[in-house]
Amino acid sequence: MSLQRACPLFIVVWGWLSMLAAGPAWGCYSGLAVIPTADVVGAGQYSIELQTDGLLPVPRADVYILNTEAGIGDRFEVGVDFDLSEDADPRVLLNAKYVLAQNADCTRALALGVSGVGEGVKSVPYLVGTADLQALRLHLGGMRLEDKTRWFIGADRDLTEKINLGVDYTEGDENYSSVALGYQLTECTGIFAGVLFPNDGGDTEFTLHLIFGCSYRGVE
Question: Bridge-partner residues for 140, per DSSP?
Answer without folding.
Answer: 129, 153
